[in-house]
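Example: MYND-type domain-containing protein.
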Amino acid sequence: MITLASSVSTDLPIATVSADVTADIAKYTSKMMDAIKGTMTEIYNDLSMNTTGSTITEIHRLRIEIGKLQWLHQQELSEMKHNLELTMAEMRQSLEQEWDLLIAEVKKQLELEKQQAVDETKTQQWCANCKKEAIFYCGWNTSYCDYPCQQAHWLEHMKSRTQSATTPQQEADSEVNTKTLTNPRVPPLVFR
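Written out as structure tokens, the predicted fold is:
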């Protein structure tokens, strides 16, 4: 059986040995910490010097890369601008072609309408005096819209009627009649 007194006496020498070991451990720990601290300081200094050179190199490399990226960006922008200009030119050309086709189509339609109007106009007779649509004929190529227009135009028209149907002697007589007669006989109008 172990008593309290015997256990206390045995603990004391162990505690003393343990204190010496602790002191030795503390001493060697301090030496090791100093060695580690020195080694770490050396490593840090070496890395700092190498990193500074390496950092400058890295910065230079990054600047070159940034320059390349900026150049690529400018190239892409230029290419996009060029493609946009090509697209716009194609669209403009397409619109101009479409516009030209529409203009040609409208011109063709207007020309057709004009020709129809001319053809319709050619089928009608026009008053020799006032150019309205004529409904009365006075000879084969002269028409009038009404009797007052025929009377107003008769003196001029009478010359062409008598020239084609008369001889030189009759022309002289006609001139005398025109001068002496103020109202020569007007032929009757034929309704169309």
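The helical segments are 4-122, 147-165, 168-180.
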